[in-house]
Amino acid sequence: MMIKLNPLFMKYWLREIEGKQAHDPIFMEKMKSLSSRCLYVPGPVIVGAGPSGLATAACLKEKGVPSLILERSNCIASLWQLKTYDRLRLHLPKQFCELPLMGFPTDFPTYPSKQQFVDYLEAYARKFDIEPKFNETVSQAEYDGTLGFWRVRSIGVKGEAMEYVCRWLVVATGENAEALMPEVEGMGKFGGEIRHTSSYKSGEEFRGKRVLVVGCGNSGMEVCLDLCNHNAKPSLVVRDSVHVLPQEMLGISTFGLSMWLLKWMPLRLVDLFLLIVSRLILGDTARLGLARPKLGPLELKNLSGKTPVLDVGTLAKIKSGDIEVRPSIKSLKRHAVEFSNGKTENFDAIILATGYKSNVPSWLKEKEMFSEKDGYPRRPFPNGWKGECGLYAVGFTKRGLLGTSMDAMKIAQDIQCCWNEEAMHLLHQSSPL
Ligand SMILES: Cc1cc2nc3c(=O)[nH]c(=O)nc-3n(C[C@H](O)[C@H](O)[C@H](O)COP(=O)(O)OP(=O)(O)OC[C@H]3O[C@@H](n4cnc5c(N)ncnc54)[C@H](O)[C@@H]3O)c2cc1C
Ligand SMILES: NC(=O)c1ccc[n+]([C@@H]2O[C@H](COP(=O)([O-])OP(=O)(O)OC[C@H]3O[C@@H](n4cnc5c(N)ncnc54)[C@H](OP(=O)(O)O)[C@@H]3O)[C@@H](O)[C@H]2O)c1
């Protein structure tokens, strides 16, 4: 749904701003600076075709607002399709992971596999007729106060530049846009392979090898289990404390149970309950080298965003000695790793399960809504979704797909109000392609 920035549109656009600025030399200079490869998008431009971008486009569509998604890769949900391992399943029950306006098929299991989730997203995009523009990496977006529009620049795979002009900009590039690679002394010297979990697929290629997995979040724990299942010999670096909870308690998902308990009990009491039941089910994790943080799992999540690990079988492998826990790394040698306790051990490969970061500061030229430090909205949940001048953020709540759905619905509602007032007016007066 695009309109070329044609002379007729320009005429009405100029009329729209009451003719005042049309005589302003700075404004006229800006107009001339818009390149020939420039498209006016009447609705919002959404950056990113992951679950967040798709959910926002669907909610907008349902409200009669067209949108355009720009996606750097060649498919929807690229994180899920291209950067996750084979054995991945949703770790929360499906009812907490569905996007607005369309549930999961009833024959899907409680914890859908990665392929089932991708199939669901493909069906979702088809249902709402969402056709992102693929292979377009947004390299810069800034609000042009003189024009009163967002100017979004993208680069294609062959380096071709494009500019989009729009009234609303929705940031949907995700909390996991780039792999977080730590600096480790001697990294260049290590003779074996060093790989981030975003390019790990299966333990098959590590069969029989000694593999050091760095980081004990959900990725690190699950990759260790996968390595074990493929007869590799994994060790796990745990540099700090971590909350490991069973995925289910008393036959109910730990997440669902926590949500339900929070309706009746204060957060700290729910945390206490979770810790007692975890202790009964899992035993004392500190004895395995996984000391618990001082704050409870939900309180810690609320204050720092640190996600508790939901155990899917890794702990049993640590107990049995199939996975060994190691302290933080001091330095790397040609075939060995020296740990902070002074011990040195040989490894064939290192897998960095060290997490991800937002890439928003690298392309969004805006300092109010997003923090330059971590690329997240400055305002805490639930108020981080809306900025100034038609800027929005979806999927930055540190609350997974549930947070995505909440943001998407609020954004669509908010844009619809303005759309009804102003955008439709402009749309009717300009000529569609
Ligand atoms: C291994 C793993 C497992 C997970 N499991 C769960 C789970 O079970 N449940 C849950 O709720 N959450 C889970 N998550 C969290 C996950 O982030 C969300 O489920 C979901 O993918 C977030 O969707 P999103 O659209 O916000 O971000 P993403 O899925 O990351 O999508 C963002 C999109 O933006 C694109 N993009 C980025 N930068 C640009 C740019 N400059 N220009 C154009 N396009 C760009 C990316 O290519 C990507 O396609 C998991 C995360 C990981 C890493
Ligand atoms: N569906 C699923 O089952 C599933 C599977 C995987 C991931 N996920 C989700 O995906 C998101 C990302 O998870 P993730 O596990 O990839 O990342 P993460 O949750 O950010 O965990 C990264 C881990 O790496 C550690 N770490 C970072 N730098 C380190 C270093 N230099 N040395 C040692 N340890 C280091 C961190 O320790 P500190 O805590 O000390 O910083 C942390 O334990 C999360 O939301 C997660 O829940 C879900």
Q: Overview of this structure, please?
A:
There is one protein chain. The protein is an alpha/beta fold and about 425 residues long. The protein has 2 domains: about 5-175 and about 360-430, FAD/NAD(P)-binding domain, CATH 3.50.50.60; about 180-355, FAD/NAD(P)-binding domain. Helices cover about 30% and strands about 20% of the residues. The protein has helices at about 5-15, 25-35, 50-60, 80, 115-125, 220-230, 255-260, 265-280, 295-305, 315-320, 360-365, 400-430, and strands at about 5, 40, 45, 70, 135-145, 150-155, 160-165, 170, 180, 195, 210-215, 235, 245, 250, 250-255, 310, 325, 330, 335-340, 345, 350, 355, 365, 390-395. Strands 1-2-7-6-5-23 form a 6-stranded mixed β-sheet. Strands 10-21-11-12-17 form a 5-stranded parallel β-sheet, with helices on one face. A 4-stranded parallel β-sheet has the order 4-3-8-24, covered by helices on one side. Strand 19 and strand 20 form a beta hairpin. The structure holds flavin-adenine dinucleotide and NADP nicotinamide-adenine-dinucleotide phosphate (NAP).
Offer a few descriptive terms:
single chain; 433 residues; alpha/beta; FAD/NAD(P)-binding domain; 2 domains; 6-stranded mixed beta sheet; 5-stranded parallel beta sheet; 31% helix; 20% strand; disordered N terminus; binds flavin-adenine dinucleotide; binds NADP nicotinamide-adenine-dinucleotide phosphate; flavoprotein
